[in-house]
Write a structure and sequence with these properties.
The protein is 59% helix and 7% strand. By secondary structure, the protein is of the alpha+beta class. The radius of gyration is 17 Å and the shape is globular. It comes from Agrobacterium pusense.
Length: 232
């Protein structure tokens, strides 16, 4: 039996952070299809594994524990799989990085498709995207990160902050050539570091599996079609 169950749509997007942490931690997990996700979303809150509005939802079978919200799940897995730095400061910085990543993907999809991209909106957004990339670069630089060595928070081994950062930038770059060029040009350090993390065996296998399972899909729906018109 697998260690975990994951409820998330059959696209990378927010669920890929959770998949990345599970893969990096050497865990096994089962995923449920869209029909199963819709079924538990439609239940009364008291009959859900945890009261939630939308996926991801992770169930830890060994501990009989369920959790929703990507940042909460990421930090739980950090504790569970010993992927967090020691001390309150390192844990707080990890939470900051996870929430920054969550903000970036929300901005890339205009808050889940509340609006659609136009060339004018995209042009106005690019400087903000570049600033996000610099924020990640500066966070790592303060802890000795370079493209060739080191990790986001100065740890000896990669942790939640590293997996989340690498998944954030490489997943979107692999699917949107315009965004890849923006990352490469804005921060060669973040691009080299994220690529270095992606080449680790668990994340490399996960990347291949994502293309096998989802093709070129990123977030799906009309917002992905809109994003492809300006960044694809």
């Amino acid at each position: 039996m697998s260690n975990f169950e994951l409820y998330y749509w059959p696209v990378p997007f927010r669920g890929q952070f959770i998949r990345g942490l599970l893969a990096h931690g050497g865990c096994t997990w089962d995923e449920h299809d869209a029909g199963a996700i819709e079924e538990i979303m439609g239940r009364d809150a008291g009959k859900q594994p945890i009261a939630f509005m939308g996926p991801p939802v992770l169930i830890d079978r060994e501990r009989n524990f369920a959790l929703s919200q990507m940042p909460a799940i990421a930090l739980y897995l950090g504790e569970r799989l010993q992927l967090l730095p020691p001390g309150a400061e390192g844990r707080a910085l990890t939470a900051k990085i996870v929430n920054d990543a969550n903000d970036v993907i929300d901005e890339l999809t205009l808050d889940g498709g509340r609006e659609m991209w136009t060339p004018e909106k995209w042009e106005a957004f690019v400087p903000r995207l570049q600033e996000w990339i610099r924020i990640f670069e500066d966070t790592g630089a303060r802890h000795g990160l370079t493209g060739d060595s080191g990790f986001m928070l100065g740890t000896e081994t990669p942790g939640v902050a590293d997996v989340v950062t690498a998944i954030l930038w490489t997943t979107v770059a692999d699917r949107f050539p315009v965004i890849r060029r923006i990352i490469e040009d804005t921060s060669p350090v973040i691009w080299a570091y994220s690529s270095r993390m992606k080449e680790t065996a668990p994340l490399a296998a996960l990347s291949r599996r994502a293309f096998d399972d989802y093709g070129d899909a990123y977030c799906g729906g009309q917002i992905e079609k809109s994003l492809r018109k300006v960044a694809g």
